[in-house]
């Protein structure tokens, strides 16, 4: 392992520092290139970029590294799309995350293509394609089968003369003009694992895939300072791939984590939603906590002192959430659901609760009947509880009225947590109203148990007992109604709860976390059916 040293100078503030970059020449032919990053205004940074020497890999070489690409995983319409560009005399390569996914034996859900054709030429070849202006460059966007495709043109980079930053560097003597342009394009990517062509590696992405690590192409101290949004995206990419953060990248994240305060709140919400709603919430949570971002996003809530790795409930709650979402089928969780999980957890941190209280709480959400839930839970043996969770107190022999009183106290505590989480970077205000309605609805239900036709309710839930022509309709995630119809005629109607599906799934997640005897189901729909029946 050889170490390379480069000087990074911030001319705006007159500071200099020395950074070291490691390269491993035993696996890949590698080099560190001198680069000048010029931002708008007077901000200029000099540094080094670690890269491979314009290395092309065939599938035999990739096979030795267990990274060979099965082209059958690229859908047929996408292969035909590339074939059309080649037939017209244009170069076209898959680039970015789709190449990474193929090497990791995952079927891509979206594709990026870099081509020598101009975007107008691409648009003329394919119907329903649109040229849009992104933050840094123009792209041609279209749908191929069920996949979203973004096409980038080399001319967009060759002629690029403005933007957030420009990169200047010497052309290596061993580099052709063609490869030099492709390499410049790679430097516009965020992380090395997203900087691969099929199959050219200009940035050491294959090495990092083999090491299962996420590393910025531009040195992290420069990159995260230029674009703080990439701080959150680095966490999301690492969690999604189940990779580690490369040491220098991780260090830069920790040092510059406070820069997330400069990001627009709506962007923060969208980035955190990508982390928590698409099947890698637990890993995202752990990374956010380890690099110190969790207490910045949600300050004053004990995350700085709370050892999440030892206190298992929040990771377990998010692990259950990961088990039921289906990102491949475009069925992520709603924002309201994972925010509810956070608030529920914070309320238990403030005051641990009896497991039986949590169980009655969740079962009562399931069917709207507190007394029935209390009777069922009171008779569950003590050994069924997961006593490892420090957010749960020692189980006691509580009567129905005592359980109801503690549930109301729990709901009051959650509402208080919601009302006091007013500051910090995370834009809770954007969804606080909906989430507040969930728990306020719970509290109202417990305080005012409504008289309902139990026979009709049972018939609506137990679908096997229905006759032909009977139908139960569930509305959207925010206003969740249960409508009973027979032969098209509406016979019954009940507003269960606002944010109903989120409410029921939250109850299922909490119940299955508290009780180890509850099985994990395969999908959100089957999860709801199992919990409702």
From TrEMBL:
Coiled coil, from the record: none
Gene Ontology molecular functions: nucleotide binding; nucleotidyltransferase activity; RNA binding
Keyword Nucleus: no
Domain tRNA nucleotidyltransferase/poly(A) polymerase RNA and SrmB- binding, chain residue ranges per copy: 243-301
Domain Poly A polymerase head: 92-215
InterPro entries (alphabetical): NT_sf, PolA_pol_head_dom, PolyA_RNA-bd, tRNA_ntf/polyA_polymerase_I
UniProtKB keywords: Nucleotide-binding, RNA-binding, Transferase
A single GO BP: tRNA 3'-terminal CCA addition
Family the UniProt entry places it in: Belongs to the tRNA nucleotidyltransferase/poly(A) polymerase family.
Protein name as annotated: Poly A polymerase head domain-containing protein
Native species: Acer yangbiense
């Amino acid at each position: 392992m050889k170490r390379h040293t480069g000087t990074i100078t911030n001319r705006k503030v007159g500071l200099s520092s020395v950074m070291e970059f490691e390269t491993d020449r035993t696996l890949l032919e590698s080099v560190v290139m001198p680069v000048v990053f010029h931002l708008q205004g007077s901000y200029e940074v000099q540094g080094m970029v670690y890269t491979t020497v314009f290395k092309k890999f065939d599938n035999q070489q990739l096979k030795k590294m267990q990274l060979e690409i099965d082209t059958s995983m690229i859908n047929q319409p996408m292969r035909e799309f590339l074939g059309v560009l080649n037939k017209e005399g244009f170069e076209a390569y898959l680039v970015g995350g789709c190449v990474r996914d193929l090497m990791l034996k995952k079927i891509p859900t979206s594709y990026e293509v870099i081509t020598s054709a101009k975007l107008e030429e691409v648009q003329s070849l394919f119907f329903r394609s649109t040229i849009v202006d992104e933050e840094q460059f123009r792209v041609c966007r279209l749908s191929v089968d069920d996949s979203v495709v973004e096409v980038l043109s080399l001319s967009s980079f060759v002629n690029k003369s403005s933007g957030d930053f420009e990169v200047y560097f010497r052309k290596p003597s061993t580099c052709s003009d063609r490869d030099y342009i492709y390499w410049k394009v790679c430097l516009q990517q965020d992380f090395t694992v997203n900087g691969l062509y099929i199959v050219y590696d200009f940035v050491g992405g294959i090495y990092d895939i083999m090491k299962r690590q996420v590393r910025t192409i531009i040195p992290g101290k420069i990159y995260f300072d230029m674009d703080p949004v990439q701080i959150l995206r680095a966490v999301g990419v690492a969690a999604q791939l189940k990779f580690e953060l490369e040491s220098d990248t991780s260090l830069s994240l920790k040092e510059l984590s406070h820069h997330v305060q400069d990001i627009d709140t709506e962007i923060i919400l969208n980035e955190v939603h990508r982390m928590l709603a698409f099947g890698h919430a637990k890993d995202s949570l752990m990374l956010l906590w380890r690099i110190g971002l969790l207490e910045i996003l949600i300050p004053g809530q004990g995350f700085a002192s709370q050892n999440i790795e030892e206190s298992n409930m929040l990771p377990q709650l998010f692990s259950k959430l990961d088990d039921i979402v289906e990102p491949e089928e475009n069925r992520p969780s709603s924002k309201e659901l994972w925010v509810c999980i956070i608030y529920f957890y914070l309320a238990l941190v403030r005051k641990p609760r009896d497991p039986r209280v949590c169980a009655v709480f969740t079962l009562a959400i399931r069917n709207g009947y507190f007394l029935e839930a209390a009777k069922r839970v009171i008779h569950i043996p003590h050994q069924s509880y997961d006593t490892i969770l420090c957010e749960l107190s020692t189980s006691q022999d509580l009567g129905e009225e005592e359980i109801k009183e503690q549930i109301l106290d729990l709901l009051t505590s959650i509402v208080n947590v919601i009302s006091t989480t007013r500051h910090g970077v995370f834009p809770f205000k954007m969804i606080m109203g909906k989430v507040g309605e969930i728990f306020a609805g719970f509290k109202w239900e417990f305080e005012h148990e409504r008289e309902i036709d139990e026979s009709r309710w049972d018939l609506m839930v137990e679908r096997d007992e229905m006759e032909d022509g009977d139908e139960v309709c569930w509305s959207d995630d925010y206003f969740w109604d249960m409508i009973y119809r027979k032969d098209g005629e509406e016979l019954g109607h009940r507003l269960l709860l606002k944010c109903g599906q989120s409410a029921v799934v939250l109850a299922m997640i909490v119940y299955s976390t508290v009780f180890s005897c509850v099985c994990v189901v395969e999908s959100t729909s089957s999860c709801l059916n199992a919990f409702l029946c």
